[in-house]
Structures are given as C-alpha cells and as structure tokens.
Amino acid sequence: MGKLLSKFQGSMPPSEVFVDFANAAPQTDAERAVFEPVQAVIDEADQILQSLLTYEGCGELIREAIVNPSDASTAAAWQAVIPQVHLLRQFYEFSVTLTGVIPSLLQALCEPGNAEDTLVAMQSLTRQLADIMNFVLRFDDSKMTNPAIQNDFSFYRRTLNKMKMTDPNVEVPIKDDLANKMSLFYAYPTPMMKCLSETTVSFVSNNSLPRESVTELFATMANACYSMVQLDKFNDPADTVNQDRLNMFCLRALTAS
User: What are phi and psi of 47, to 5 degrees?
Assistant: First the structure.
C-alpha cells in the first residue's frame, strides 16, 4: 500500500477535503432521500461479508465423492453442498441489490459543479460511496483466497446434471438461468469490483451528465482519501484502533476509486 501511495506524491496537490467518515449524516431532505435506501443495503453488507469470511467449503466430502464414487458418498457431498449453494446465491443476489442503488448515489454526487464542494456538502453520501468501495475490496479479497467457493458450486452443477439424467423429477434448488449467472459471477477473480465498474460504465453511458463529472468524482475521492491518510487527519492518540480502522477504510476507498 505504501508503494501505491507513493504514486500520488508529486502528481497532484494535496486535497483540502475532509470527510468525517465516523460521523457523517444527511443534512437536507434531498440528501436523506438518497441516503436512506442506500443505507438499508449497506447495513446488509456487514452480514454478507461476515458470512463470506466464515465460509467453510465441503472439500473433504467432495473429494471423497470423487475419489471413491458411490451413491452414499455422492449423496453425502450433495446434502452438504446444498446449504452452501444457497449461501452463494445470497452473495450473488446481494451484488444485484448493491448495483441497483449505486446509480442514485452517483447521480447525487456527480451533479454539475465542483467535485470537492459536493463531497464536503454531501458527506453522508460520500461516506456511503466509500462504504461500498470498502465492502467491495474486502469481499473480493476474501473470495479470491477461498477456493472452496468455486469448488462447491462446480460440484453442485456437475452433480445436478448427473441427477437430472437419472431422475428427471429431481428437485433443483437453483434454476439453470440463475446458476449460469452465478457461474459467471464467481468465475471472475474480483466479482464485486466487476459489478461496481460495469454499473458505473452503464451509468455514464445512459446518463446525460458529462463523463468528466464521474471521472472527477472518483479522482477527487482518491485524492481526498490519500490526503486524509497522508496528513494524518484521523490522528487520535487516545484511540489508535479507531484511527487505524479509519485509515484503512480510506485506503480501500482510494484503491477502489
């Protein structure tokens, strides 16, 4: 991360923007109208992330079903993997929900005007954009380091196809159309970042706002987060744990931006 920060040195002046990430709250009715539906999704993100961090695959049972194939070993692996597949479906469906609220956030923060002034004036929405980017990086990092996710889902699809051939009436927990979408989602190394970037590109393509408004928003966000860390804006000798947490939060928002 230090190398990443060094890239900014000398390339742009330090930003004077300070966003109170710890206490930002809506200040107007218009800001609150955007804030509340977005916050409902962000509140769910913590549970999604915790479920992912504690995700334990069915590797041993799957290996047994492959190495010593039998009706019993396959059935044991199948029964174990079904709850995990439902959990993976929950992760995927949350990505759809998350991308659904991003356009309203971008619309509010990318209105014509000075990006620095907008980030300061709408600190609660700026915090939410940073919250989303913080979640995206943490989710993708956990997904990339847990191969059980793709292994479990691959076993589910392979076994389901075999079961369909032997029993046309077999119960299908996840229909093929959704399963195909989930496969594409989990095949990507950083699926949440892919969703975020694709949603942003779509927003730019289908919106009358100048493209520069969006690029300036993310550039300003990156510079502001860099400066807040570099200038030690969250310095609190009495609470170094919270200080470190806010600095890390800024660095993730910087990276994602």
Answer: -65, -40
**Token pair for 225:** 């987060």
Greatest CA separation for the chain: 67
The two tokens of residue 180 are: 């195909």
Q: Say yes or no to pLDDT of 5 above 50.
A: no
Query: Can you list the alpha helix ranges (DSSP code H) found in the chain?
Result: 2-6, 29-53, 59-67, 71-109, 115-121, 123-144, 148-166, 176-187, 191-205, 211-230, 240-256
If one compares 241 and 157, the residue with the highest pLDDT of the two is: 157
CA distance 26 to 30: 9
Distance of CA 15 to the CA centre of its chain: 26
Provide the pLDDT for residue 12.
Answer: 58
Q: Are 214 and 222 in contact (CB under 8 A)?
A: no
> CA dihedral defined by 90, 92, 97, 99, rounded to 10 degrees?
160
Query: Measuring CA to CA, which residue among 218, 219, 214 is closest to residue 203?
Result: 214
Q: Considering the entire predicted model, what is its pTM?
A: 0.88
Side chain identity at 186, as an amino acid letter? Y
**pLDDT higher than threshold 90 for residue 31:** yes
Cβ neighbours around 212 below 10 Å, total: 12
CA 23, CA 127: separation in Å to the nearest integer? 9
Residue 161 region by backbone torsions, left for phi larger than 0, else alpha for psi between -120 and 50, else beta: alpha
Higher pLDDT pick, 237 / 118: 118
Dihedral angle, C-alpha 8, 10, 12, 17, nearest 10 ° = 70
Residue 1's pLDDT band, with cuts at 50, 70 and 90, is: very low
